[in-house]
Amino acid sequence: MPEPITEQAERVLTLWQGSWVAAFAVGILVWGLIIWSVIAHRKRSEQLPPQVRYNMPIEALYTVLPIIVISVLFYFTARDQTYLLETDEPADVYVDVNAFQWSWQFTYEKELDVNGNPVSVAGVPSTSKDELPVLVLPSDSVVHFDLDAPDVIHSFWIPAFAFKMDAIPGHPNEFQVKIKPGVEGDYEGRCAELCGFDHSRMLFTLRVVTPDEYRAWIEEQKANPQELPASPDVQEETPAPDQGQDTASQDAAAQDSSDSAAAAEEEDGQ
Q1: What pLDDT, on a 0 to 100 scale, did the predictor assign at position 173?
Q2: How far apart are alpha carbons 74 and 72 in whole angstroms?
Q3: Which of 59, 72, 159, 163 is 20 to 30 Å from the Cα of 178, by its Cα?
Q4: Which burial class, exposed, middle or buried, applies to 158 when counting CB atoms under 10 A from its CB (0-12, 13-18, 19+)?
Q5: How far apart, in Å, are the Cα atoms of 162 and each of 3, 68, 138, 159, 176?
Q6: Exposed/middle/buried for 141, CB within 10 Å: 0-12, 13-18, 19+?
Q7: Judging by beta carbons within 10 Å of its beta carbon (0-12, 13-18, 19+), is residue 36 exposed, middle or buried?
Q8: Phi, psi (5° rounding) for residue 158?
Q9: 119 contacts: CB under 8 Å, gap ≥ 6
């Protein structure tokens, strides 16, 4: 897994490592019992060995032990999921994430530029790092994300967060993270939900900077707002034509044609 850069990602990494430890422990136990039974109970004579069918203690163990293992895994998963979805802590930065086919728009809710609009960054579909939208965030800070989409389901994913969440039309989602100090740098971000033709180019860059550098960047954006690329609007579906109206129009056109032909014949006769 990527090196986690948030406190929440540390929790995910710990859960992931603990799950592997539990899986290896169960695997070693099962394979050890299999190998032991093959060696200890290999055929030595033609005599039928003692039968242990309907051994209640062993059958109870087969039932109780898996229930214990699953219950322990469920407890830690539910505990960590609750922690990851907590949004009660006051955030230092609030970001609206608008996912659209096929790029991103990041709006800093509480930061208004000289025109009175929130500071915003948007991009276009691309695989060139220079053309990707850049999400700038400060280290050692709590960041709150509000996710939405105008067209189809997308998924906001930063591998260094060890976490992703869907952006669903008509169903806003939210989460927040605590970015650790000393993790400044650029990180990849992308859409993790197959969303159409240019899904593979729906990328962005996360740039973590120091709090002072972040404040300087915000002030620069306020003074010189970026011109945002046009993002496609969701087009309303064109209603299907009324078959009854089409038939009536065709009948009227046919009647007009017949009347015109009859008038022409009368003129020729005269």
Answers
A1: 93
A2: 5
A3: 72
A4: buried
A5: 9, 27, 18, 5, 13
A6: middle
A7: exposed
A8: -120, 105
A9: 107, 108, 111, 112, 113, 218, 221, 222, 225
Q: Interhelix angle for 7-40 vs 56-84, to 10°?
A: 170
The domains of the chain are located at: 7-40+52-84, 93-223
Q: How far apart are CA 199 and CA 17, in angstroms?
A: 31
Amino acid identity of 237? E
pLDDT for the residue 234: 40
Burial of 104 by CB count in 10 Å (0-12 exposed, 13-18 middle, 19+ buried)? Answer: buried
- 157 has which bridge partners? 164, 190
Cα–Cα distance, 175 to 37 (Å, whole number):
50
Q: Give the span between the Cα atoms of 34 and 246, in whole angstroms.
A: 75
Q: Look at residues 151, 148, 136 and name the one whose alpha carbon lies nearest to residue 212.
A: 136
Domain 93-223, CATH class in plain words:
mainly beta
Please give the average pLDDT of every successive group of 10 residues along the chain, which has 270 residues.
88 92 92 90 78 79 89 93 91 93 91 87 85 92 94 94 93 93 93 92 94 93 79 42 48 55 52
Query: Which secondary-structure segment (H or E) carries 67?
Result: helix 56-84
